[in-house]
# Entry
Amino acid sequence: MLHDSDETDDVIFLLSTDWFTSWIVSMDQWRGGQTSIEHTKNVARRAASGILSGAADYYHVDLSPARKAASFDRFMKELSPGLDERQARDLDRLLSSITGDSLLSREQRWALKAVLVREVSRGFGSDARSALGEGVVIEVMRTLELLGVGEIPFQPDSWWDVELDGKFGGLAGRLGDYASSAHAPSVLLKAVAGATRRLEYSPLDMELLANWWADATQEFSMYVDPTLAALLATRQAPDQPAVRRFHE
# Structure
């Protein structure tokens, strides 16, 4: 299981909070049961305490890739034995959703989300509807409604949440900003992928969707390779006929 070392501390911090763990359960992002999420949170709190080592500010601790990798490795070694096979799969899916597809940076994932948030605010223009298809448009609107238009506001549920949020250079709400920029885009991208598979989009359907989506990110000063955008949302069989079925 490989994860971007720049994001592993953030994974631990998020999973240590009552706010984020409650949120992922409510969003059906964790289905392993209350005992396993409490176990995960408690292990994450010990790991977070180890990272901070009593420091008043996270940005004053060792932020080297080697230290981050070592902290994450210890976290996983303590956590994994307490999870059964299903719970381990839940954890793997969650970690992947937080750190995102390794082929795309956090900024690229944010830009893909921002395009869809903008289209929702505009009511989806004809070009967007033609490229996405009505089924995907409906799924995007449903998911963004659940996500609060793509943002996950920080709402502390405990003293730990409040104390931890105060350790990022005085930037209140930094945990919410990270969840919104890293986790929310992945939830949305997975929703789009699920819709295209459920609706059996053809390779040509996916090409149109990916080209429009990737091109639109340039309005946010970001470049996303259309091929990578297509990979996010297609699982086509090798012999599937290349015919247009949804965008006439």
Observations:
- The radius of gyration is 19 Å.
- Residues 131 and 209 are 5 Å apart (CA to CA).
